[in-house]
Amino acid sequence: MKSIILIAAPAAGKGTEAAILKEQYGMAHISTGDILREKSKEDSEMGRDILNKISNGIFVSDELIIELLKERIQKDDCANGYILDGFPRNVAQAESYDSMLVELNKDLGIAIIIDTDKEIAKARIEGRRSCPKCGRIYNMTFEEMKPKKDEICDDCGVELFQRPDDNGDTYEDRYNTYIEKTSPLIEYYESKGVAYHVDGSKGKDYTHEQVEKILGELND
Ligand code: AMP
C-alpha cells in the first residue's frame, strides 16, 4: 500500500479517516500531534516546552518534528506504507521529508486533501473527545460519532478527554496558521502529481467512500 499524507484544516477529519484506514488496511497511523502529546508528559524542559506549544496551537520546531518522524517511520510497522496525520505542516518540513525518503529509500506515496468548510470544522472542535489509551476520536456533537456510554471509550472503557487546544478561541489561530503555513502544501503536492481532493464536509462515511475510490483507482 502507498503511504498517505492527510492534509486538512484542524478538526476536518484527518484523525478519524486515518483510524479507519488503519483498521481496514492495517497501516501504521502516525499522528505527530499524538507523538507530541505523549512527549509533553515528560518531566523535562523539552516536555514542558512541547506542552506549552501544543496547548496554544504553536508549531514545535521543524528540527524536532523531523527527528521524531525519522525515528518513527523506520519502525517495522511502517515497512509497507503508513498514514501521516499532522505532518508535514509546512513546506520546509515537506522538503526535509523528501530528503529523508531518499536517504531511507522509501516512496512518497500520495497526499489526500480533505476539503472542509471552516465553520463546519469549528463546530466539530468543541465536541471532539479522544481516548487517552487508544487515541480513538469521538464527537459529542454528532450522533454518529458519540461513544456508546457517555464520555467513555467503546474499546478501552477509559474516560475520554478534551484536548486543551480544542476550543473556539484557539481555533481561529490554528485555522489561520493552517491557511498561512500548511495550505501551500496542496500546491506543493499537486505540482508533484500526487495530490487528491475529497469533500470532508458530509461526515466520516462519505469522506472514507471517496478515499477508497481514489485508492481503488490507483490500484487498478
Ligand atoms: P494535531 O494533533 O495534529 O492537531 O497537533 C496538535 C499540535 O501539535 C499542533 O497544534 C502543533 O502545536 C503540534 N504539531 C503537530 N504536528 C506538528 C508538526 N508537523 N510540526 C509542528 N508542530 C506540530
Overall average residue pLDDT:
94
Name the CATH superfamily classification of the domain at 4-116 and 181-219.
P-loop containing nucleotide triphosphate hydrolases
The second-level CATH architecture of the domain at 4-116 and 181-219 is: 3-Layer(aba) Sandwich
Which ligands are bound? adenosine monophosphate
- Major beta sheet, strand line-up: 2-3-1-4-7
CATH top-level class of the domain at 4-116 and 181-219:
Alpha Beta
How much is the radius of gyration in Å?
17 Å
Record field, number of beta strands: 7
Structural shape: globular
Main sheet: strands, sense, barrel: 5 strands, parallel
Account of the protein in words:
- The relative contact order is 0.19.
- A 5-stranded parallel beta sheet has the order 2-3-1-4-7, sandwiched between helices. It has a two-stranded antiparallel sheet with strand order 5-6.
- The longest helix has 16 residues, at 204-219.
- It has a domain at 4-116 and 181-219: Rossmann fold (3-Layer(aba) Sandwich), CATH 3.40.50.300.
- Helix 6 (118-127) crosses helix 7.
- The mean pLDDT is 94.
- Strand 5 (128-130) and strand 6 form a beta hairpin.
- It has helices spanning 14-25, 32-39, 45-55, 62-73, 91-104, 118-127, 168-182, 184-191, 204-219; strands at 4-7, 28-31, 82-85, 110-115, 128-130, 137-139, 195-199.
- With 220 residues, it is α/β, with parallel strands linked by helices.
- It is 48% helix and 13% strand.
- It contains 9 helices and 7 strands.
- The protein binds adenosine monophosphate.
- The site of adenosine monophosphate has 17 residues, from helix 2 and helix 3.
